[in-house]
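Request: Give me one sample?
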Amino acid sequence: MITATPDPSTHTKTLSLTEDLILMLLNEESGFFYQVPGWALSCTISGAAIAQLSLLSRLHSDSDSLILLDDSKTGDPALDPVLEEIASESEQHNVQYWVERLAPHAESIIDRRLEHLVEKRILRHHAGEFWTLAPNTGQLDEYMVSREGSVVDFVRTRISRVIFENEIPDPRDMIIISLVNACGVFGYIFELDEQSRARIEFISNLDEIGRSIATAVTQSVASPLLQHPPLTKRVPKAPLRHLLFNRHMREGNLPALFADLAARHGPVFEITPPFQKERTIYLAGPETNQWAHKHGRMYFRAKEYFQKLEEIYGVSRSIHSMDGADHFRYRKAMSPSYSREALTDRLDEVQRNAHAHMANWQVGEDLTACTNMRELMNTQISPLLISTETQDIINEVIDYKVRALNVGLLKVLPDLMLKTPKIRRNARTVAELIARVQRTHTPAQRLGKPRDVADGYLGLNASDPQFLPESDLGVPLGTMLMASMYLGDQLGFALYALVTHPELYERVTAEADALFADGNVDGEAIRPDKIDVTHRVLMETLRMYPIVAMAMKHIMNTCVVEGFELPVGARVVVASTATHYMEDIFPDPWTFDIDRYLPPRDEHLSTAYAPYGLGTHACMGFRWSEVQLALNLLMLAHYFKFELGAEPPKRLINSFPSQSPSNKILFRIVEQRHEFRT
């Protein structure tokens, strides 16, 4: 019998065993772990926690039982809850029992370890819940790594030497090898031959702790009863009338509609639209949001949802329909183009363009919450994204995309609605837009000019024409200006919130006047701590009037959510913003209350607040959006005084293809408060 020895991390500055394991399992191409099924990963992580406690002399395991040696706290917030639960049980159980019982702790352990690795600048966290290795400048010596290497190189090199160079492993490495082997992913990390596979099996059986835990993990993972619980509940079917005759549906408020349906039928329910055979299952609740955010990548796929839209635009695929490693690669390549810095570096230009457009507005004029706000945004967005003037065609480009979305994605209109004379003309306008971008993005034309988003797409095409071929540029180049629509619509909702809440309007105006007292501002001025009221007004606008209320996917792997089994092939709607109108999360959700976002309430600090989506397909440019929305709302408050130009319509929101303010909401300019300054 091999007894536990003290963990070397107790007297050196190496990473913990669970952190080493996470780094071993990290697949940098996909930005997440190698595709270990959810239950298998949970069992592996809980097994690693047991192993680490064994190395810390808190536990001892043999073939029959796991024995508690010392229940004193380790000081590790990831391990202490595990130790506490083991200590709470008076009866002894074997290792497999504890691996399975502690599996629900795995998500918390992973979160804490990833957070710690990010804090140590070993990993970098990307929007959409992706992680990659970060430059370890200043941290390498602490983790005993040469400046030519990285922490993950150190971990994998150490393990590879044990496997391929027959170095003598210590107990810690034996356990890591045992657990990675139990996951079945060594073949993705190293190139293995028969000799190296035999070596892995030999090492996996050397240490009793590692052997017993790896065996427990393997047995737990192999059990079909654990992967597909037989006692799943039947997904309740919501009558179609609960959808069609719901008052929130009539008002166009999809988040409130989904919240109401969830209150009636629970967080998982099914609605079968007329004339459709495909099952559509809705997820609406805080727990389903959390589940989709963390685990959706393993079970949901976007390909089928976007296939028809891509056919309309004549492309084979787009970032919207990609999942896994390709999706992450695309996001990683384009993220710098959509970053906060990409906007703030050109903030003077943005303000000049906005001023030039607003200078045409007249006192007494009525502006629409939808069309006019989109045009204001486009004067800024078009130069930033494609360095091309498009104000003459923006409405036609948006009209075409809206029709394409309604036909191709939501399928609320038949295909023939793409063949009307107006839409055919708009299709030609989209082709003209793409041609304009290509004409103005030759090397000579772009020389010495700031890099825009189109440069990012064209650069990706040039660097890897197989990954992003020219034939697939139609979606990114032809739909980029939809940012003008989404940001313009959100700005329209925000201005509506101000003019209907005079006290908040005064506070935002005061912030705006202070901000622009000396002329144009830079990016440092547009930060939440410096524009606190404006920032919270926008947060509450995003809660009550989110532009994208849901995400539609198809189920590619059977999964169990909240006790309900979701079958392969069904369509799933993640109604992520339903929680925005749930009383237990946002009390009195119909009240526009910006104090929700102050301590101790902090009602937004969970995945229940999801205005930019969840998981891997969350909005890539949300930091950009936050700055642009804040800047524009502050400019409107500083330069003009608005009031409602007419009684608000009963239906404030147009629901499809995304939520937008009704054009019947009018803002009357009653005063120009300041002259435009640079």
